């Protein structure tokens, strides 16, 4: 899938449910921060220097080894994408919100690389010169880290990355110095939320060296009972240590969420079945849905799927609907700006269409 195709398709491979632990873990991500030696960081760069960085990365992508591994990829200027297309990529979690909103170097001097399978994306001139990201479905942190590391190694054959023998890779933010690796998982924790335990669990997680973020990463709020866990610092830790620590803690959170779901099933089976069935019924028949209501109902339905209460749905479809119900997709679908009531009507229409023919086979 080309980058232009990706901005029109709400589906991404990270939504696949044939992956480990997808009842709780939505996706796994590994992101490497890299900067070119002898260049200022993006927030201090001139437009001319930013252009030189873009040109250097574009040349590195032409290396036959890179093409052999990741296929023919091209660097697309962010300015070549319409605003609605940029935000589609944000809502598919392929780029960061800051990459779109920050005007440090201007969209003309920012570039984006996306592999055909959307597993690999590279942001050029975001907070760092390169943000190399790999995104996998379910709990596959090691696979995501390997792919990002492979891309990093191939690019480093051509590009001279800023590196200190004493502290490692140099980055714009001190918390990324060292390996430059930020590993993260997106977790769906509705049972812990419903039982009032999620705050204690996430507080304990932060004491173990992780940070908790919202749906779209740093500075964003949680929605649909979705939370991102990631490592706080990279300095003094190897990539393997970062990945292994995050996976170990994630597995503990998975166990807590599954235990909470079992408790819901045992202590209030009728209540939880009613909640899931009501959510499914509203989504199938509503004619107006707000963004917040859609995310909450989709979360309840996903919980029902994970608990075996709904048999005719897949997590993949629900993940696609998470993208389709966002304002960006609605604007792209209609081809114009919409008022809040118009968005509510179109959102409900798209959900009804997606669930048409799906039966609650519980």
Order of helices and strands: HEHHEHHEEEHEEEHHEEHHHHHH
Secondary-structure-based class equals alpha+beta
Q: CATH fold name of the largest domain, please?
A: Creatine Kinase, Chain A, domain 2
Strand order of the largest sheet: 2-3-4-5-1-8-10-9
Q: Could you describe the largest sheet, including whether it forms a barrel?
A: 8 strands, antiparallel
CATH level 1 name of the largest domain: Alpha Beta
Terminal Cα separation, in Å? 36 Å
Low-confidence region ranges? none
Radius of gyration, CA atoms, in whole angstroms: 21 Å
Write down how many β-strands occur, each being a DSSP E stretch of 2 or more residues.
10
> Can you tell me the number of structural domains?
2
CATH architecture of the largest domain: 2-Layer Sandwich
The CATH superfamily label of the largest domain reads: Glutamine synthetase/guanido kinase, catalytic domain
**Overall shape:** globular
Task: Provide a count of the helices.
Answer: 14
Overall mean pLDDT: 92
Estimate the helix proportion, in percent: 40-55%
Q: What percent of residues are in strands? A: 5-15%
Description:
This protein is an alpha+beta fold and 362 residues long. The chain folds into two domains: 3-185, Creatine Kinase, Chain A, domain 2 (2-Layer Sandwich), CATH 3.30.590; 269-355, no CATH class. The chain is built from 14 helices and ten strands. It has helices at residues 3-6, 47-60, 64-70, 83-91, 97-101, 141-156, 190-194, 198-207, 239-267, 269-285, 291-306, 315-324, 327-334, 340-355; strands at 25-34, 75-77, 111-114, 120-124, 130-137, 163-164, 168-169, 181-188, 210-213, 226-231. The protein has an eight-stranded antiparallel beta sheet with strand order 2-3-4-5-1-8-10-9, with helices on one face.
């Amino acid at each position: 899938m080309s980058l232009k195709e990706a901005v029109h398709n709400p589906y991404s491979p990270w939504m696949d449910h044939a992956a480990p632990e997808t009842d709780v873990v939505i996706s796994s991500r590994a992101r490497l921060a890299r900067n070119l030696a002898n260049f200022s960081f993006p927030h201090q760069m001139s437009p001319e220097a930013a252009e030189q960085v873009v040109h250097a990365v574009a040349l590195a992508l032409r290396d036959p080894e890179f093409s052999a591994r990741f296929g023919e990829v091209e660097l697309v200027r962010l300015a070549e994408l319409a605003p609605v297309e940029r935000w589609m990529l944000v809502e598919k979690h392929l780029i960061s919100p800051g990459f779109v909103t920050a005007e440090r170097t201007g969209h003309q001097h920012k570039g984006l690389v996306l592999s055909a399978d959307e597993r690999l994306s590279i942001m050029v001139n975001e907070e760092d010169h390169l943000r190399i990201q790999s995104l996998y479905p379910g709990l596959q942190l090691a696979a995501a880290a390997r792919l990002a590391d492979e891309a990093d190694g191939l690019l480093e054959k051509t590009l001279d990355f800023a590196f200190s023998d004493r502290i490692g890779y140099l980055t714009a933010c001190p918390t990324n110095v060292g390996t430059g690796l930020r590993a993260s998982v997106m977790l769906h924790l509705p049972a812990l939320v419903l039982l009032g335990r999620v705050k204690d669990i996430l507080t304990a997680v932060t004491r173990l060296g992780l940070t908790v973020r919202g749906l779209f990463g740093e500075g964003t709020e949680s929605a649909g009972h979705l939370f991102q866990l990631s490592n706080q610092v990279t300095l003094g830790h190897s990539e393997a240590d970062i990945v292994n620590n995050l996976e170990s803690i994630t597995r503990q959170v998975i166990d807590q969420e599954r235990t909470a779901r079992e408790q819901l099933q045992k202590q209030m089976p009728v209540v939880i079945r009613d909640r899931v069935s009501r959510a499914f019924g509203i989504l199938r028949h509503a004619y107006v849905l707000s963004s917040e209501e859609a995310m909450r109902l989709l979360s309840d339905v996903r919980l029902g799927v994970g608990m075996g209460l709904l048999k005719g749905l897949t997590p993949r479809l629900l993940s696609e609907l998470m993208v389709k119900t966002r304002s960006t997709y609605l604007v792209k679908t209609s081809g114009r700006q919409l008022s809040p009531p118009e968005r509510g009507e179109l959102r409900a229409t798209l959900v009804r269409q997606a669930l048409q023919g799906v039966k609650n086979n519980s």
